[in-house]
Design brief:
Order of helices and strands of chain A: EEEEEEEEHHHHHH
Strand order of the largest sheet of chain A: 1-8-3-6
Largest interface: A-B, 32 and 32 residues
Helix content of chain A: 40-55%
Strand content of chain A: 25-35%
Oligomer: homodimer
Shape of chain A: globular
Distance between the termini of chain A: 49 Å
Chain lengths: ~160, ~160
DNA sequence: ATGATTTCTTAATCTAGGTTAACCTTTATC
DNA sequence: GATAAAGGTTAACCTAGATTAAGAAATCAT
């Protein structure tokens, strides 16, 4: 459990590395993401101050996600430990619920609906990250997001 | 904690009902799913014997998923209880990991890739459910799945 | 401050998967 | 075992979002 200061744009965990930690954000903004075989990034999660971010693989397994900073950040590294997680099971159950909703959304909602849901759910993050990042979280291209936002303005 | 016998096709939990239980499958096959505003079903999860299935909302909240049986089944109803879940945190952490992978797949893989991954990961379920159900789990239409499988045969 | 890199937008074109509909096969139901 | 219902396939056509490319605006680095 060590506090580190991390400059914007620094990768603090890479796919394939042995994963033993999660990261609690004291200040700043992190993200986790994967890179597909075409080199395209897919953001799995954002984590602003107060949140904890990490890969869901068991401690000692190889990481499946990259984690980096989108702003200069202060981060506390916390060793993964299922015993400790038992003390605090609520956030994990909440996490499962959020992931369930995300999957249902990805399967049943249009890009516009997913965008509107994102903006409503995470207004703070919407203000802090680029369109490109939001598009990547939604599972669409920045071009598609630009088009969607345009259509929205004209139709409302 | 009560054991019930459920005939194929019976809905044992509906969206909007107060949710207090999860279901442990002794025999048979259940699924959880949502229905979108166009009336289309989206399967969130299958649960064959030995698995536990339930909505991830907290006990007392309104259910966001339907749960029904795809085969005649014997099911044990278990009251949700975060204290009890603490005893057995491993399956929940595993669950988070599976959901993380599913989200990454939905965002970055084609329908064919998702199908092949499904068949490889759940060969037993592949044998037991209709194409329609598999398509619904993958987030595509049965027509699209039929097309994909055809293409696969001709290209290999 | 200035050039360079990154971000955002627009537009043309392309494609995976959706929609609709017809048809055939398998499975339930009486 | 006849009839109905559900499941699966095929084909024609459609559409949301991807791709490519190019220009404008913002941000970064020296």
């Amino acid at each position: 459990m060590k506090q580190i200061e991390v400059k914007k744009g620094t990768v603090i965990q890479s796919v394939g590395e042995v994963d033993t930690k999660v990261y609690h954000v004291k200040s700043g903004l992190l993200r986790s993401y994967s890179i597909d075989e075409k080199g395209k990034e897919h953001i799995f999660m954002f984590a602003p101050e107060g949140w904890t971010i990490g890969d869901s693989v068991s401690s000692g397994e190889k990481a499946e996600l990259f984690i980096d900073t989108l702003e200069n950040s202060i981060v506390i590294e916390v060793e993964k430990n299922p015993e400790k997680e038992k003390q605090n099971i609520k956030p994990i159950l909440k996490r499962v619920s959020v992931l369930q909703k995300r999957i249902i959304m990805l399967m049943s909602s249009s890009a516009l609906e997913r965008y509107e849901h994102f903006v409503k759910t995470y207004p703070d993050i919407t203000q802090r990250v680029s369109q490109k990042m939001i598009a990547s979280y939604l599972g669409i291209t920045p071009e598609a997001l630009s088009k969607i936002k345009n259509k929205k303005i004209n139709n409302s």
